[in-house]
Amino acid sequence: MPLEEPVAVARALARHGFNADREAVTLLANAPAPGAAIENAIDAAPPGTTRLTAADVRPAIEATTPETSGRGSGATAGAGADSEASADSGVDSVPDSPPEPTVDSEADSVADSAVDPATDSDTDPVADSDTDPATDPASDSGTGIADRPDTTDAPVAGNRGAASVDGGTATADSSRAATADSGNGATDGGSGGSGSTTASDSGPPVDAQEGTGAPHPPAPSVSSETADDSPPESDSEPENSGTAPVETKGSSAGERDPSSRSIDISGDITGHSTGTGRYEDFVAVFRDRYERLSRHLKGRVNHRSTDALGGAGGGGEAGLVGMVAEINSTKSGHWMLDLEDPRGTFPCLVMKDKEIADHVNELLLDEVIAVEGSVSGDGSILFVDDLHFPDVPRTYRPNTADRPVQAALISDVHVGSQEFLADAWSRFADWLHTEEAAQVEYLCIAGDMVEGVGIYPDQDEELDIADIYDQYEAFAEYLKEVPGDVEIIMIPGNHDAVRLAEPQPGFDDDLREIMSAHDPRIVGNPATVTIEGVNVLMYHGVSLDEVIAELPDEKASYDEPHLPMYQLLKKRHVAPQFGGHTRLAPEEKDYLVMDEVPDVFHTGHVHKFGYGKYRNVLAVNTGCWQAQTAFQKSVNIDPDTAYAPVVDLHRLDKPDPMAIYDFN
Ligand SMILES: [Fe+2]
C-alpha cells in the first residue's frame, strides 16, 4: 500500500508507536516525500508525545520539500528515496485495493420493508407456537424476588469455556450486492418476506456454538414499529455516496472543533462490582429489577400485591405488576402465567381467544409486566384482560446533538482470527481519513475486539494469533489506523478477556495499557454513552441468542437482528431471562435495566447487520469484521461483514439519520 494512502501513513506511524489526527495524516500522505516526512515528524515529536497533530508534522514536511532552503536539504536525502523510506517505515505491502466504500441509506431499504415484523398485530402466536413452555430449559429459573431456592447457576467468575453464541446469518455477498445496488429495490431480499422464508431453518444456537442462523441473505432493512415512525425517505443518500472516498486536504480537519465534544457514561459496572454470587445477591438484584421496572407499570394498572389478590376473598377488577416466574399452556390452549412480586406469586390466566394472547409468545421468564383483569370468586386466579410491557412510550422523541456530528457504529472485530478482514478494516480506517468522513468524530465498538481463546470447540485451529495478549497487541495496531482525533468508545463482548457474566466490567489495566496509544474510552457492557446529548446504549448482545431461541421467528430472528432488539426495548431490559445462555453476575443493582429510553441502541454479537426504528429509537446490530469461520460454515452461518453504519447525531429525529458504508 503506497504511503499516499492515509491508512498506510497511519500504519507507518503506528509501527513507531505513534497515532495522528486526520489532518496530520492527510498532510503526511500528500507530502512530496511521505516516507521522509514521517521519519522527520517522528524524530521531531516532543518527548512523551504519541499523537501527532498538524502542527507537529508541517515542519517535518517542509524539511523534506526540495524547494525549501537550508535545513531542509539534509532531509531531502530521504525525500529523494521516498520509496525506500516507505520500506524503512515498515509499511505493509498490502495489495493495493482501492477503497470503494459504497453508501446505502436507511431509506433505500425502507421501501422494501414497509411491513414491520415487530408490529403488535402479528399472526396468532398461540397457533404458531406449539412449544410447551413447561419444557423450556430455562423455565426452572424462576424470578427470585420472593423466594429463589435455586442459585446453583450463580455465574460470577469468567468461565469462558462455556461461552455463549455468536450467531450470524445472511450472506455477505448478497448483502453487499444489495448495498451496491442500493438505489432501488436492491433489498427485495430484505426484511419481512425474505426473513420468514428460511427462518425456520435457524435452529437456535446451543452452548459452545459460535452461532447459528438461517442461510438466506436479507439485505439490511429498516422497519418501524408503528405507523407513526415515518420510514426514512429515499433521497437521503449522503454526499459522495457510492463514490471512492475523497481524501481530505486538511481543511476539513481544521473545521472540527474538539471543544464541542462531550461523552458522559452511565450505567457502567466498571469499578463498582460488589457481587459475591451469594443467594442474597441474586434476591437483591431481582428485587431491584422489579422495583425499577414496576415504576413504569404501576401507573397503568390498579396494582394489588399478590397476597392482597388472594386474600381479599376474590371477585372484582384488579391489576398486578409482576415478574414472569412461569409460563404454561393448558390442555385447552390457554396460557397460565405465574407472576411474582415481593409478596409472593399469583396465577394469571390468559384465554387463547383474547387479543392479548398474541403477546404471550414474546414473554420471557424474569421480565416484568403488568396485567389487569378480574379475580375469580374464590380469589385463586386472575383472568387477564390486558397486558402491558414497560416499553418505550409511543410519544418518545430522540435527543439530538446541537451540531452536525456523526458516530460510526461497529462491533465484533475479532482480531486474532484467521478470518479477521484486515484489508476491509484498512479500507474502513482509510475512509475515516477522507473528507466524506469529516463529521465522523466518534467510533463506537460494541464488543469482541479480539477472537479470544477457548471460546468454542477447536477454536485454536482457526486462530491466527494464539495468545490473548498478542491478540490485543494486534488489535491496538489496527486501532492506530483510526484517525487520532476520532473518539473511540468500546465495551467488551463474550470473546474479550473479561468476565463472561453480565454486566461485564471494562478491560483491566493490562489491556488498557496495550490499547492506550489511541486512548479509547473503555467502559463496561452494557453502558449508556451520552454523546453530545444523545444516549447510545451499547450492549454486546449475548441475550439476543436467547430472545431469538425463545420467540417465534417473526418476532426475533438472526436474519433481522433488530427485531429481538425491539423486544429488549419493549421489556426495558437488555437480558431479561436468567438461567439460560446469558450469564448474570448479581450486583447491588440490576445494571441491565433500561431506566432511560436510549436514543440509539447499539448491539453486535450475532454477526448480522440489521437496523430499524422502534418507537423512534434507532436500533442497530452492526455485523462483524470476520469472514465465515470453518465452524460457522459447519453450522451454516453466513455473517454480514465490514459494514459501518454512520449515525448523524444531529439529525437523529429525522427519518433518515443513518448512512451505511460497505467496505467489503
Ligand atoms: Fe463476535
Quick one: overall form?
A: elongated
Report the C-alpha radius of gyration, rounded.
26 Å
- Main-sheet strand order equals 3-20-19-10-11-12-13
Please outline the major beta sheet: 7 strands, mixed
What integer is the average pLDDT?
Answer: 75
Total helical segments = 19
The fold-level CATH name of the largest domain is Purple Acid Phosphatase, chain A, domain 2
- Proportion of residues in helical segments: 10-25%
Query: Which structural class best describes the helix and strand composition?
Result: alpha/beta
Which strand-content bin applies to the residues?
A: 15-25%
Summarize the structure.
The protein is an alpha/beta fold. It contains 19 helices and 20 strands.
Which properties best describe this structure?
alpha/beta; six-stranded mixed β-sheet; binds fe (ii) ion; single chain; 17% strand; 24% helix; Purple Acid Phosphatase, chain A, domain 2; 664 residues; OB fold (Dihydrolipoamide Acetyltransferase, E2P)
Protein described:
With 664 residues, this protein is an alpha/beta fold. The protein has three domains: 6-88; 103-113 and 166-249 and 261-273 and 394-662, 4-Layer Sandwich (Purple Acid Phosphatase, chain A, domain 2), CATH 3.60.21; 297-388, OB fold (Dihydrolipoamide Acetyltransferase, E2P) (Beta Barrel). The chain has helices at residues 6-15, 22-29, 34-44, 54-63, 72-80, 82-88, 106-110, 125-128, 172-180, 192-197, 251-255, 279-294, 306-311, 422-432, 468-480, 509-514, 542-550, 562-571, 630-634; strands at residues 19-20, 51-52, 102-105, 263-266, 317-329, 335-341, 344-350, 368-375, 382-388, 406-410, 440-446, 487-491, 521-522, 527-531, 534-538, 600-603, 609-614, 617-622, 643-648, 658-662. The strands form four sheets. The protein has a seven-stranded mixed sheet with strand order 3-20-19-10-11-12-13. The chain has a six-stranded mixed sheet with strand order 4-14-15-16-18-17, with helices on one face. A hairpin with a 2-residue loop joins strand 17 (609-614) and strand 18 (617-622). Helix 3 (34-44) crosses helix 4 (54-63) and helix 3 packs across helix 6. The longest helix has 16 residues, at 279-294. The protein is elongated. The two termini are 17 Å apart. 59% of the residues are buried. Residues 68-144 and 147-254 have low confidence and may be disordered. The structure holds fe (ii) ion (FE2). Residues 166, 412, 414, 448, 493, 495, 605, 607, 624 line the site of fe (ii) ion. Fe (ii) ion binds next to loops.
